[in-house]
User: Fold this.
Amino acid sequence: MNKGDVLFAYETDKASFEAESETEGILIRRLFEEGDEVPVLQIVAYIGKEGEAVPQESTQTKDSKSGDPVVSRESKIESREADRIAVHSESVSATSGQKISPRAKNRAASLGIQISTIQGTGPNGRIMDQDVLDAAKSTHPLNPLGKEIRVEDKLTISSSEIGLDGRISSFDVLSAGQMAGDDVEIIKVSNVRRIIAQKMHESLQNSAQLTHHTSADARALLRLRSMIKTASEKGSVENITINDMVCYSVIRALKEHPNANCHFMGTSIKKFRKVHLGVAIDTERGLMVPTLKNADDLTLRELSVQLKTLASACKKGNIDPELIASESASFTVSNLGAYGIEIFTPVINLPQVAILGVNTIIYRPADLGNGVFGFIPFIGLSLTYDHRAIDGAPASAFLREIKLEIEKLSFTL
Assistant:
């Protein structure tokens, strides 16, 4: 094979990528098969010369005498992330001398798992959150109802049927009792779906979320959209969407209300001077939320182009993993208007302190002035915020500012 040839496609907890060969040679040994889950920083194969010897046990360092180990780009990124976490949050030492992340320590305490029994897979043997979850799965803790059903029906549970928190629920036990031939299909949860589920569960469990709903007069939006669509068909302007316009309005509102453009860090609040906008994108692999850095520096035209570029990268699976980490964005917008959703409650991407849900446009009766009533288009807006970081009044003022920015939006062709 030549340098730059595609070796394999791999899926992380965020996206899918293709790994290219960084050297010339032949594939002399591969350590994993298609569909295997590979730990971060694990060597997956060796490239070398024909007949070259390869050690029976893989190592984490490059050995010039035994071929070049293939390590994914995502693994390197995750390693840098782990190092960054280690700098900002010192590892907690277990009684056995093991290193464990604060998050993993809290998880172990909540699940009643002995740290000394856990084998760490992080840098230098550091125990990570996933290691605790894996340990919890191996112990198979049952909730009371699940235990009762298992005993009465004499059922057994496999490790693949354990829930997000490492516990086996009554539902898991009943699922294990389904016999072959029943009118059901058991579908293995994908890695991306599992991570999404875990993140959403943690968000609701670890924050005080509250949602306010309002709506904005959408007449200006629709007039502007109609004007741009006509110009776009003639090729004189880019096709700027309603979502682009809403995002632009949100950015302007965030500059007026920076308390919503923050991360809640537990004992401190990180307030951003720039707006790093996260936008929820639906893809075949699941929900992704890429970040548009320094979005407040862009015009409406530029914003529209950049958002389309991000969406395309997500759908193709070649988005930069660092841009889809929840820590990358300072605020997120999730738009379900295209699905006809009139109202919903978006879930915050922690450590962000708020997220805006955008609903469909519906017509409602309103006073047109001089005692005349008519139907006016309104676009629904749902703001979920973390009450630990923002109080109700400031959150309401921010939502009102978004409404006003939408209603007064203008654009020059």
About this structure: The CA atoms of residues 62 and 365 lie 70 Å apart.
